[in-house]
Amino acid sequence: MLGTVLGAPVMLAWSWFLAAIVITALFAPWLSRVRPDLGWGAWLVAFAYAVLLFASVFLHELAHAVAGRLTGQKVAAIELNIWGGLTRFEPRIDEDSKRSAMTSFVISVVGPIVNLVLAAIGWAVLQFAEPWSVTWLILLAMTVANGALGVINLLPGIPLDGGWALQALVWRLTASQYLATIVASWVGRLIAVGFIVWSVVVPLLAGGRPELVTVLWMSAIAFMLWLSAGEAATHAKRARRMETYDLSRVIQPAIAATWDAEVGPTLDYADSVSQGQTLVVVLDREGLPYGLLDRHAASQVHLGAAGTSQVRDFARPLGAWIGVPEDITAPHLLESLTHRPKAQFCLVLSGSTLTGIIDLQEFFDELLAS
User: Which of 48-52, 150-154, 333-337, 354-358 has the lowest average pLDDT?
Assistant: First the structure.
């Protein structure tokens, strides 16, 4: 972790070092050709360029974070990695679809705009730098790189920023986030194919031959774009299912029993609620859930002793839990779980009365099933 910005950690992924090595290895030979006097210093200058390039990426991601913060989003983390960077926001459910769409559009476009502004500044400063000096060469490379980052990121296909901007516009026009994501993800796939076609066709049209390194590099980028676009489409399908998901499918009826309640009457009452299916949550002395009654073990108690045995003798630890109202929806449940990511069970309440339990692992398995 490099530090915090806007209350969120700035993370440097290990893959950044691999990217820095690749950028240095690609830039240093060019520097050696145009400035042979630099010698091994060309590699130090090339590494400095890699660091400055990722500083530009950080400013790109910071723009996303600031825009999100200004529109009411909470920044979860900023990460720099081999593909550039990523800004993550805390999940938020906004009932106003049109406002959410426009917020997404603004957050998406500000990053590439920052790169284009940096390119313009770099071009202006270039006019005052001594041509072919180290400063001039780095400025030239930064100007070209930021211009390329800005233009490429504005291409209208997911996972590029322009793709999320397109998704926001279609979402705003159709009121369907699902349809918008599917459209933008397919455009992203077309752009991925376009990168490979460009690396092959352009040299052929110019009367030359495609360069293997360029084709391989474009293919790697295209693979990343295709894969990310597909993941976005898959997440959209799951999100659409979540919006209409009926939580009653995974809610098991449950009752609460005090820690000193007798086994016999407790089992009888549980059976009257739902024959053999009702779970019993055992409360501690403070009245807080701490265990689940092992009904099988409790039912094996000799009938003569059942009236005097207490449920606490057959309670298994409940594990981490979260309480929710019985009218909660699947999207709001997921939103609540962001604050208790380690929760294993969800206790469903009608007012202050326990009515059911959701095994969250079962919920996730069913919700995310293909």
Answer: 333-337
Structure tokens at 77: 């983390």
DSSP assignments along 249-290, one per residue:
GTEEEEEEE-TT-BHHHHHHHHHHHSTTT-EEEEE-TTS-EE
Locus of tokens 């779970």 = 279
Give residue-wise pLDDT tens across range 41-57: 889 989 988 888 888 99
What is d(CA 331, CA 337) in angstroms, rounded to the nearest whole number?
Answer: 10
3-class DSSP state of 339: coil
Backbone phi, psi, residue 357, to 5°: -135, 140
* pTM for this model (two decimals): 0.69
Q: What's the CA angle centered on 134, arms 151 and 34, to 5 degrees?
A: 85
Could you tell me which of 273, 263, 260 has the C-alpha nearest to residue 350?
273
- Calpha distance 35→203 (Å, rounded): 28
Residue 116 backbone dihedrals phi, psi, to 5 degrees? -65, -35
- Among residues 273, 275, 278, 307, the alpha carbon closest in space to that of 293 is found at 278
Domain positions in the chain are: 1-154, 168-244, 247-367
First to last CA, the chain: 35
The domain at 247-367 falls in which architecture?
A: Roll (3.10)
Residue-wise pLDDT tens digits, 238-270 = 777 777 788 888 888 998 988 888 888 888 888
Residue (of 52, 162, 64) closest to 118 by Cα position: 52
Residues sharing a CB contact under 8 Å with residue 152, sequence separation 6 or more, in sequence order = 160
Tokens, residue 92? 């938020």
